[in-house]
Specification:
This protein has 200 residues and is α+β, with helices and mostly antiparallel strands. The chain has a single domain, classed as Sandwich (Jelly Rolls), CATH 2.60.120. The chain is 17% helix and 30% strand. The protein has 1 helix and 11 strands, in the order βββββββββββα. The strands form 3 sheets. The protein has a 6-stranded antiparallel sheet, with no helix packed on it. β6 and β7 form a beta hairpin. The radius of gyration is 24 Å and the shape is globular.
Length: 200
């Protein structure tokens, strides 16, 4: 997942583990800038600090031909979309919005989660002002050759996201169904017995 970071965002990461790092007022100025972490190397925290100036801020757009955000239909931002091949916990302003798998300090302690998840943002946490997203993660089951990768998320609209998923599933099924109907229509013409030559 690729997220375009506005210039007024602050993104920092640190290896280690402390539950206090989820709190929005934690002083992370000594952390490493950026959201690139090492794979299969313990627990990391990545913190995103950003302002929202209104109910519909101008936010990052996904650089992908398949946009799963659901925002193209004009719906409000009410959730985040995670496509993460690692175990994580996702905090918004200190509140746990959801998790995937179990974050662990070892491969044995870590439990694998699901790849795609939509996490709802409570309405009382979507107001204008500064917000902090903190992602706690471990990557021992990250089955890609890369030694380092970027951690990110995508703002989304829940209804729009699931409507898009239904369309992506339904359209291919309609195509297959249409092909089957054509095949069934043509089948009798190929199954009519043909009389041998010279017979009446």
């Amino acid at each position: 997942m690729i997220i375009v970071k506005p210039q007024d965002w602050t993104i920092r990461q640190r290896q280690g583990d402390d539950p206090r790092w989820a709190t929005p007022d934690w002083d992370d100025r000594a952390w490493t800038p950026g959201n690139t972490v090492s794979a299969r190397d313990g627990i990391y925290w990545v913190r995103f600090r950003f302002p929202l100036s209104g109910p519909q801020p101008e936010l990052a757009q996904l650089l992908s031909p398949r946009d799963p955000s659901g925002l193209s239909g004009g719906g409000p931002i009410d959730s985040v979309f995670m496509a993460a091949p690692y175990s994580y916990e996702f905090y918004w302003d200190g509140r746990l919005l959801g998790r995937s798998g179990v974050v662990g300090a070892t491969r044995e302690a870590e439990k694998v989660g699901v790849l795609d998840r939509v996490l709802a943002i409570p309405s009382e946490l979507r107001g204008p002002g500064e917000h902090v997203v903190a992602i706690r993660l471990s990557t021992f089951h990250y089955n890609f050759p890369a030694e380092r990768f970027d951690v990110g998320f995508l703002f989304s609209n829940t209804d729009g996201h699931y409507a898009g998923e239904i369309q992506r599933v339904a359209f291919p099924m309609l195509g297959v169904g249409g092909a089957m109907l054509v095949a069934l229509h043509l089948l009798p013409a190929h199954c009519v017995p043909v009389a041998p030559r010279g017979s009446l």
